[in-house]
Every structure is written in structure tokens, then in C-alpha cells.
Design goal:
The protein has 3 helices and 5 strands. The protein is an alpha/beta fold. The protein has a single domain, classed as 2-Layer Sandwich (Nucleotidyltransferase, domain 5), CATH 3.30.420. The chain starts with 9 loop residues before the first strand and ends in a 24-residue tail after the last helix.
Length: 141
């Protein structure tokens, strides 16, 4: 699958599927790294990004955009991916595109590439959880 304008160095983060972290790189073609997890963490996601970039011999400074699955999905995993994507976009001055829906990596890349074409650096992605977050227990009465 070939991508358009930003295809040379686009990072793709997908944490919307329960129990799986997906980090991919659109570098002419899509290279994918998947990782199963019990408890998602931004450290795991950052380690996968580092592994993939190292494997493909690409530095962070060469990235031209970030595509992130914005939900619905697990609260902590979506929040970590959106935070990392936004931070990378800000630090590298590159566009970040959030794509909602349960999609394959190829479809996420296709839709994200179109959105990156019309997104300017500095735009932020917000996660969409699909329902209220359940991060605390309700108080007992």
C-alpha cells in the first residue's frame, strides 16, 4: 500500500484494540510492529516506536507526520497514544492526525494520510473513548 504526500516517514500508533499495541511506519510501504499487553503503558508504546525506527534506520527527526487511532478503545491506552502523538507533533513540528473507528492498520494509514494533507503542525488529537471512562470506583454511600 502506497501513501501520498507524507508517506516517506509517517508513524502510526494504534492502541484502540484491547490488549494490543500497534506501531507502524509508512515508509513507502507499511511496516508493522504489534505487541500484546496486560496493562498498557506509555513506556511500552515508546519502546515499540524506538524499536521500529531503529529497525527501519529512521531517526525521529525524519518523521513527517503521526497518525493515531483516536478511539473508541481502552481509556489508558488511547490517552497514552494521543499524548505521545501530540508531544511528537509539537516537538518535531509535524502534523498529527487522529482517526476514529475500529480500523485495520492499512485503513488507518489511508484515512490518516488524507487527513495529514490538510492538517497543520500544532493541531491536537483528543481521544474518543466511546463511553464514560471507568478509572475510579464510585463512592459507597
Amino acid at each position: 500500500m502506497k501513501l501520498q504526500q507524507h508517506s516517506n516517514r509517517v508513524l502510526i500508533l494504534d492502541t484502540s484494540h484491547r490488549g494490543i499495541l500497534v506501531v507502524a511506519l509508512a515508509n513507502g510501504r507499511i511496516k508493522i510492529l504489534r505487541h500484546r499487553f496486560d496493562t498498557p503503558g506509555s513506556g511500552q508504546l515508546l519502546n515499540l516506536v524506538e524499536q521500529l525506527l531503529r529497525r527501519e534506520k529512521i531517526s525521529l527527526g525524519e518523521l513527517t507526520g503521526v497518525i493515531v487511532a483516536s478511539g473508541p478503545g481502552p481509556f489508558s491506552a488511547l490517552r497514552a497514544a494521543a499524548s505521545i502523538a501530540n508531544a511528537m507533533g509539537y516537538a518535531l513540528d509535524i502534523p498529527v492526525a487522529g482517526i476514529a473507528g475500529e480500523l485495520s492498520v492499512k485503513e488507518l494509514a489511508r484515512r490518516g494520510a488524507k487527513k495529514l494533507e490538510r492538517t497543520k503542525p500544532g493541531a491536537l488529537v483528543t481521544p474518543h473513548y466511546g463511553r464514560p471512562a471507568h478509572i475510579t470506583k464510585p463512592p459507597r454511600r
